[in-house]
Amino acid sequence: MTIEKLTWAMIRDRVAVVNPELFSIIDKISPDDRHGLLRIRYPYGAAVLERGKLCLPTQEAETLPFDHPHFEHRYTEDYRYATTPLMLQLDKINEVFMPFSDRIVPVNLVSPGECYGVFATAGLLANIPANPIYSASAGARSVFFSTKVSDALGNRRLSQVFGAKIIQPKTLMDQHQNFKTIAYAQAAKGQAWISETLVFDRSWFSHAKDIGVWQSFYNYVLRAAWKQVQLLHFKNAFSITWEEFTNAVQSRNLKPSPYTVDTVRQLILISNQLALGFAPVHGYEDLFPAQLMEAVYRTIYLFIYAPIILAPNWLHRLSPGSGIFYSLSHPTLLEGSPALKTPGSLMSEIRDLQRLMSMIEQMLIQPKKADVGMPIRPARFEFYHSDEDQLGDIENSQFIAIS
């Protein structure tokens, strides 16, 4: 069953495993059976949220908004209390992202035990309307091979084996559709990658005028919202520090393009754990069915070497010494000018980045009279391109896996 109505007594033991703090708070309240919950099982790649609205899976391997006529309004009244209802991740990792017309920007990863929808529900408690514009998917949405997968024969073989349409990806983000298609086909064979999410209904927030024992639960929601706000606070502090860097660039009479400056800023945000980068998904089955996709593209698509699949991750979640990546072919800037560059200009763009990063690295090791803004952690940056660099300054991307 993909959608299951539950009571607290039916799911409490599961919550105790993934989030002991929230379990303890709710168990002390001991909510009765009128306080409903939905346990939703999403197949890989399914939409969990679309522009903040909860989506539910159907038997036809698609997802629709919870208030869609398909569900005969079974969920409309109970889950429309906030733009996004309170949700607790039970199994696997979901990606929260910002959808744009030409790209997908990863914003956060929600792991088991973590809540989302906290901004909207905190706004409900404070009587302040919130209109989130982000979306979320079951597993990684911003996921792609580090090399092209546009071989027509290879994709035709995938279509024949899985009995479904495999598209010719035009951009890195187009590959996600093929990953979904393959995952759905495997699920039909009983080999499903499933993300589980628990959704709280309206009744959990019906005690705001007579809080009593519910105070601790509402405080938990408010604290969770504040923790997410802290990331914005750190970014604001970083902006003060970044002003120093831009002033230094101007004083040296350097004139990098706005795109280069914005990209350097994003690289520093990623290295200081204020933005997501990309990392190989091998071994991260909670985020993406990596073993399945690696095997499929090695044995059916017929990659001639071991394929590397990249997906969003936080630097601090990786093993010590591991690297994290950023792709100029898929800019994840939320601010600035993220216009995609033509392949012929990427090499020159990387050279500009190298020069600017080298200057900033020198600034970071110089002693300062006083700390202003947010301290920046020094990091080592390496630059790659799929073409050979005649000057030998930029390494070939085929060596990424062994560096």
Descriptive account of the structure:
With 403 residues, the chain is of the alpha+beta class. The protein has 9 helices and 16 strands. Strand 7 and strand 8 (104-110) form a beta hairpin. The longest helix is centred in the middle third of the chain and has 37 residues, at 215-251. It starts with a strand and ends in a 7-residue tail after the last strand.
Give a quick rundown of the structure.
Mean pLDDT is 86; it is low at 340-344.
CATH topology of the largest domain: Jelly Rolls
Order of helices and strands: EHHEEEEEEEEHEEHHEHHEHEHEE
The number of E-state strands comes to 16
Q: Evaluate the radius of gyration.
A: 23 Å
- Helix count? 9
Shape call: globular
The amount of helix comes to 25-40%
Strand content: 15-25%
The CATH class assignment of the largest domain is Mainly Beta
Structural class: alpha+beta
Any guess at the CATH architecture of the largest domain? Sandwich
Q: How are the strands of the biggest sheet laid out side by side?
A: 5-4-3-10-7-8
